[in-house]
Each structure stands twice: as structure tokens, then as C-alpha cells.
Specification:
Length: 400
């Protein structure tokens, strides 16, 4: 069996999965966290074997990799004997130079580090993980799969910010968009579900996880998306504000004495559902709504309003609409958010069936009525499997 190790690195952690890209079988998954701080931790799961969860000294990502190898050994299946054919690395920011999954050599690794100027929270940790993984697995292919790549088909009208273009060019300021791996795979799974070629469909995909973004997809190509230069723009998220008037920052700097670092922390970590209601998780917000908590009710209302705003905007951008698909943690599970976001859009041809919407499920399913002109679907995303598939495609093609 050909297996791909998928690495999804953060600044002080990385998640990993060992996947068969052909049938999606998961051979192992785990999380190495608190890298570089006092006591690190690893949790490791393999079907049929006792899970491992233990503290360890993990000075950096390279040490984290060795810890992961040790966990495989302790589970009775040394990773190097499992037939790993390639490593797929999720990379958040690929700038405007990476359009597709890319085989990593020294130059590509360096460019990923250089792009940290646009993604200081993400690319440095991802680069460290790439360096560590290439040391541990020097003789197999490493492939970078970029969150931004799918959105490189956006036209200039969608990705250009209306500021002095000299300043924009100098600092690479434009909309890049993120969650591209998920938007791409979910739009294809939605087309499969409907039995229609993706090339024929005008779609909106709503990826609603801890981070959330909307994407307008015409014929399988991204034509607009709600995240921007960074993953802070667009929809209301767990702790991120999404869209705000840029002058709010200037106002808080001049009138409130906030520093850039404080604003960064405010908008990324203390805003969104958390800032509005005190709850970061939509399940707690929903409980608050049911208990009559006005702050939770406002958090749900603002989130749903923002989603409706983007659905309307993207129907206009696409010049028509065949399907809306909800995906990721909230998209797949929060019936109340789906209901509120699409309420009142019947005149757009969007009719959600309440029974179908509230029926729990874990498979791809339709939640629109039979007479809804626009199909509304819930489709589970699987970014790791898609990264594994793209990794195999790139590494396999190069072996020919
Ligand atoms: P990530 O962006 O970290 O991959 P996920 O896609 O796993 O996030 O989404 C996690 C979020 O999904 C949680 O923070 C929570 O708000 C939401 N969520 C998960 N399960 C449910 C549920 N049953 N009902 C409502 N919201 C849920």
C-alpha cells in the first residue's frame, strides 16, 4: 500500500496523518504540541493499538519528528517500515507564485520561509516542519500543498484592493484567500453528489470551522473568496473579527492608544464569536441562545447576517447560482446557523427544508427542498486526504 504522511504544522505544534491516498484509509494520526516550551506533548492513534498520550521534552520541530517516530515504534509499527512514499505539507501562504502543489527542493523551502512576511503566524512553523521532515526522510518526495493555490484563478477585479498600487505592489498587498484545498475538494464532491460535471456549476462553498471563509466557484475555478491578505478577513469566526472598517484600527491606535501587537491580538484572538458572546464554540453560543442570553443571540445574528451578505454578493459575482455547500465543523453540524444564514432567500430560489436541515448526519446530503432552484448541500471536508491525493499526484508524476 502506498502511504502519504500529511503534516499540518503550526508555530508550536504539528498534526500528522498517515493516509492511503487511494481509498482514504487512515493508518495513524497524531498531534505534537507545545514544541519549544517547557514540557511538550504527543498524542498518537493507530486503529487496533492502544493510543499514546505522553509528555516529552520537544525543543523544536525536528525533535517533534523524532518523538513522532518513537510513537510509531512504540505502537509496534516503525514508520520507516510502513511504506511511506511521500510527505505532503500543508502550507498556508503561497503568495502569487505557487499555483499548484509543488515538489519541495531547497529553493522552494526557502521561498516558503520568505513568504512568512505575509503569514508570520503560519509559514515559519511550516518551514521548520519541512526542514525537519526532509532531514528525517531525505530520500522521498516532499510536496507543499498551498491554501492559497486554488484562489490564484481569481480575476484582478476580485483580488485587487483599491489602494495606491505602488504601495500595494511594493508590499505584495492583495487578496490571496485561504482554505483553498477544502474549497476545491468540497466543490468537486458537491458536483459528484449532484451527478453533474463541476465545469457546469456555479457554486458557493461555505467553509465554517474555527477559521471560516466563503468561496465563489465558477466551473470549478475560484473567482472570489472572503479571506484576504490574511485569514482575518470576511466571515465572523471563533475568535477573529472578519470584515471591519479599516479605520477602526486607526481609531483604536489614535484614540485608544493600542499598539500594532495589541490590535493583532484583539482582532485575531478576542473577536468573532468570543468577542461578541464570551463563547468561542458555536455549541456554547447555541446553548446561550436557547437560554435567552442576548449576547449569544447577537453573536448568532451577526454571524448569520455576514454569511447572508456573502451569499448574496457571490450570487451576483457568479451571475447565477446552482449550489450552496456548507462544510467544516460548524458548516457540517450547526443547523441553526445554516437555517439563519439562508432564511429569507426564497426569492433567490434558495429553500432550505427544515426537517432535512435538522436531521443529523455525517455523509454528504441535501438540505434544500425538492422544489428549491438552488441545491443546498452539507458535504464533509477532508483536507488531509486531498493533500495526500495531491501529494501522490505530484510525486507520482515525477517518478515517471
Ligand atoms: P478547524 O478550523 O480547527 O479545522 P473545525 O472545522 O473542526 O475547525 O471546526 C471546529 C468548530 O466547529 C468548533 O469550534 C465548533 O464551533 C464547531 N462545531 C463542531 N461541532 C459542532 C456541533 N455539533 N454543533 C455546532 N458547532 C460545532
Amino acid at each position: 500500500m502506498s502511504l502519504v504522511l500529511v503534516i499540518n504544522a503550526g508555530s508550536s505544534s504539528f498534526k500528522y496523518q498517515l493516509i492511503s491516498p487511494i481509498d482514504g484509509t487512515r493508518v495513524a494520526k497524531g498531534l505534537v504540541e507545545r514544541i519549544g516550551s517547557g514540557t511538550g506533548h504527543i498524542s498518537h492513534e493507530m486503529p487496533g493499538v492502544a493510543a499514546i498520550s505522553r509528555d516529552a521534552q520537544i525543543a523544536d520541530h525536528a525533535a517533534g519528528f523524532l518523538e513522532m517516530l518513537r510513537a510509531f515504534e512504540d505502537s509496534g509499527s516503525p514508520l520507516l517500515e510502513l511504506g511511506v512514499t511521500a510527505v505532503g505539507h500543508r502550507v498556508v501562504q503561497g503568495g502569487d507564485e505557487f499555483f499548484a502543489p509543488t515538489l519541495i527542493d531547497d529553493h522552494v523551502a526557502q521561498r516558503i520561509l520568505d513568504l512568512a512576511v505575509l503569514a508570520p503566524l503560519h509559514n515559519p512553523g511550516e518551514h521548520q516542519a519541512i526542514v525537519a521532515a526532509r532531514q528525517v526522510f531525505p530520500s522521498i518526495a516532499h510536496v507543499a500543498v498551498f491554501d492559497t493555490a486554488f484562489h490564484q484563478t481569481m480575476p484582478p477585479a476580485a483580488y485587487t484592493y483599491a489602494i495606491d498600487q505602488e504601495v500595494a505592489r511594493k508590499h505584495h498587498v492583495r487578496r490571496y484567500g485561504f482554505h483553498g484545498t477544502s474549497h476545491r475538494v468540497v466543490s468537486r464532491l458537491a458536483a459528484d453528489y449532484l451527478g453533474r460535471p463541476v465545469e457546469e456549476l456555479k457554486q458557493i462553498v461555505l467553509h465554517l470551522g474555527n477559521g471560516a471563509s466563503a468561496c465563489a466557484i465558477d466551473g470549478g475555478r475560484s473567482v472570489d473568496t472572503s479571506m484576504g491578505l490574511t485569514p482575518l478577513a470576511g466571515l465572523v469566526m471563533g475568535t477573529r473579527s472578519g470584515d471591519i472598517d479599516p479605520s477602526v484600527l486607526l481609531h483604536l491606535m489614535t484614540a485608544g492608544g493600542y499598539t500594532a501587537a495589541e490590535l493583532d491580538e484583539l482582532l485575531n484572538k478576542r473577536s468573532g464569536l468570543l468577542g461578541l458572546s464570551g463563547y468561542q464554540d458555536m455549541r456554547e453560543v447555541r446553548d446561550g441562545v436557547e437560554a435567552g442570553d442576548p449576547a449569544a443571540t447577537l453573536a448568532l445574528d451577526v454571524s448569520a447576517h455576514r454569511l447572508k451578505h456573502y451569499v448574496g454578493a457571490y450570487a451576483a459575482v457568479l451571475g447565477g447560482l446552482d449550489v450552496i455547500t456548507f462544510t467544516a465543523g460548524l458548516g457540517e453540524n450547526s443547523a441553526i446557523l445554516r437555517e439563519r444564514a439562508l432564511a429569507g432567500l426564497e426569492w433567490f430560489g434558495i429553500r432550505v427544508d427544515p426537517e432535512r436541515n435538522w436531521e443529523p448526519g455525517s455523509e454528504a446530503r441535501r438540505i434544500s427542498t425538492d422544489d428549491s432552484r438552488v441545491q443546498v448541500l452539507v458535504v464533509p471536508t477532508d483536507e488531509e486526504r486531498e493533500i495526500a491525493a495531491q501529494t501522490l499526484e505530484v510525486s507520482g508524476a515525477l517518478q515517471l
